[in-house]
Amino acid sequence: MTTQTVPAPRPEGTAAATPLLEASGVVMRFGGLTAVNNVDLTVNKGEIVGLIGPNGAGKTTFFNCLTGLYVPTEGTVRYQGTVLPPKPHLVTSAGIARTFQNIRLFANMTVLENVLVGRHTRTKEGLLSALLRGPGYKKAEAEGREKAMELLEFIGLDHKADHLSRNLPYGEQRKLEIARAMASEPGLLLLDEPTAGMNPQETRAAEELVFAIRDKGISILVIEHDMRFIFNLCDRTAVLVQGQKIVEGDKETVQNDERVITAYLGAPLEGATDTAASTEEDQ
Ligand SMILES: Nc1ncnc2c1ncn2[C@@H]1O[C@H](COP(=O)(O)OP(=O)(O)OP(=O)(O)O)[C@@H](O)[C@H]1O
User: Is ATP-binding set as a keyword in this record (predicted)?
Assistant: First the structure.
């Protein structure tokens, strides 16, 4: 990966012009609980967008709605202008990849094998071809390994390609998750708390990695509790509180918003009644 500490400036006005992801009026209810309440969010090409909010605000549920794990109760999610099918593998094929809050690597597989698993949506060879191990399969396999090694080099883990993933230090496991997600060649990468459990040094390295990924032309939507990380990285940040988006904007807009300060201090959000904090019984 690149070792730059200062990101290359994003060309003014170009990235903002092309919407990649457009979530509109997304609602997710679990019985009487409204976990996500009428959320609109756009990620444009070339952007790094942050999604923050207190615990239980609905951030991961919203991610799950974007990636087909959940079918939203209401609303639509478009990627490059097309409504996404509510099936995770089809969302991945369409160009969205994600990581999870809790690491989900194959512990007994090598680092390289974990990345190869992430490539399966980009592999055209079918089961029969794999069983026969014909020339088409062998060529695709060699190409796959080459691309996977390039990714490992990019994230700085090529020297550990043959190590079992369970033997990697925590910070490297998180990086490997990102490499596996990138193996599906996404246009948009969703990162769910990528620095959770990291020490400050690993967190700074993760910042550099996210900038380097954006410089490769991949847009990013990131959930994170580390405010410094979010404000260092993001062109724009949206704040979810009790399922609702209460504010969206640049660092100054978000930091100075009274509602955000109140939400983080734990006071009830004014006007937010039909929310994750309320159930049908309460209403
Ligand atoms: N499958 C589910 N069934 C019922 N309730 C759920 C389900 N998933 C999430 N919830 C509830 O929805 C609300 C939002 O949860 P979610 O995990 O999306 O919040 P979050 O903002 O990601 O929180 P955190 O920062 O703690 O990860 C919570 O009240 C949670 O208990």
Answer: yes
CA distance 192 to 223: 5
Q: Which atom of ligand 1 is nearest to the CA of 58?
A: 18
Structural contact between residues 274 and 37, judged by C-beta atoms closer than 8 angstroms? yes
Reported as a single tens digit per residue, the pLDDT across 107-160 is 899 999 999 988 876 665 555 555 666 666 677 778 889 999 999 999 999 999
The domain that holds 229 is classified in CATH as 3.40.50.300
Please state, for a pLDDT cut of 70, what percent of the chain lies above it: 81
ipTM over 0.90: yes
Domain count, the chain: 1
Ligand 1 neighbour 56 (Cβ under 6 A): yes
Q: Is residue 171 part of a domain?
A: no
Q: What's the gap in Å between 260 CA and the centre of ligand 1? A: 19
- Domain of 80, in residue numbers: 1-95+186-283
Cβ contacts of 200 within 8 Å, gap of 6 or more: none
Pocket of ligand 1 contains residue 243 by CB under 6 Å: no
